[in-house]
Automatic annotation (TrEMBL):
Biological classification of the source: Bacteria, Pseudomonadati, Verrucomicrobiota, Opitutia, Opitutales
CDD domains for this protein: AdoMet_MTases
Tree of life domain: Bacteria
EC number(s) given by UniProt: 2.1.1.33
Pathway info: tRNA modification; N(7)-methylguanine-tRNA biosynthesis
GO cellular component: tRNA methyltransferase complex
Species annotation: Nibricoccus aquaticus
Protein known as: tRNA (guanine-N(7)-)-methyltransferase
Family: Belongs to the class I-like SAM-binding methyltransferase superfamily. TrmB family.
Pfam families assigned to the protein according to its UniProt record, in alphabetical order: Methyltransf_4
Residues annotated as signal peptide: none
A GO molecular-function annotation: tRNA (guanine(46)-N7)-methyltransferase activity
Binding residues for substrate: K119, D151
Length: 205
């Protein structure tokens, strides 16, 4: 298969995934919840977001992960807890943002112990990049929180610098971590660092 054919095949597959995501989200997210969504990127087996949804019954929560097995296990936790305000989806973060209904807005975004991609040549794969922060900001309203936690100090420093230099987000040292629950990765970490940023008010809503 030549490059043009591979590109066409990739775009076709992406369009198919986006179409399926848009349909699922339109059918599954209550209209009244669209303006205040809680979103976890890399939800793993769902420990954190299941506990969050149980503790915040008025919040509608969506967790995504790239691995189907994790989503299946997370869904089982949700079902055992009988939570109706929680969805788990197999999805890539940027595609999820593109698939959100036009009226949707993220109120809280959690990124917990994401892959730090420690090798320099792999830094481009880290999720907290400037263009991704812009994409997140486009799906939020002023005051929305971005909550990031990692046990890899160099990644934290890089992420903190990226967020602090981005005009759409402001790091707020006075903001406390909104919901504490020890995740599997956190339990294994000798130490970790947390960052809470707020979406700046200069963007149009």
């Amino acid at each position: 298969m030549d490059n043009a054919a591979r590109t066409a095949d990739y775009l076709s597959r992406r369009d198919s995934r986006l179409s399926a995501l848009k349909t699922f989200l339109a059918d599954s997210v209550p209209a009244k919840a669209l303006s205040q969504l809680t979103f976890e990127i890399g939800c793993g087996h769902g420990h954190y977001l299941t506990a969050y949804a149980a503790a915040h019954p008025d919040a509608f929560c969506i967790g995504i992960d790239l691995l189907k097995d994790r989503i299946i296990r997370a869904g089982r936790k949700r079902d055992r807890a009988k939570l109706t305000n929680l969805l788990f989806l197999e999805a890539e973060a940027r595609e999820f943002l593109d698939a959100l209904p036009s009226l949707a807005a993220l109120a809280d975004i959690f990124i917990l112990f994401s892959d730090p991609w420690p090798k320099r040549r792999h830094h481009k794969n880290r999720i907290l990049q400037s263009d991704f922060l812009s994409a997140l900001a486009a799906k939020t309203r002023p005051g929305a929180r971005l909550c990031f936690r990692t046990d890899y100090a160099p990644y934290f420093s890089a992420a903190q610098a990226t967020v602090a230099s981005h005009s759409d987000w402001k790091v707020d040292a006075s903001d406390s971590w909104p919901f504490e629950l020890e995740t599997v990765f956190q339990s294994r970490a000798a130490s970790y660092q947390s960052l809470v940023a707020r979406r700046a008010s200069h963007l149009a809503t």
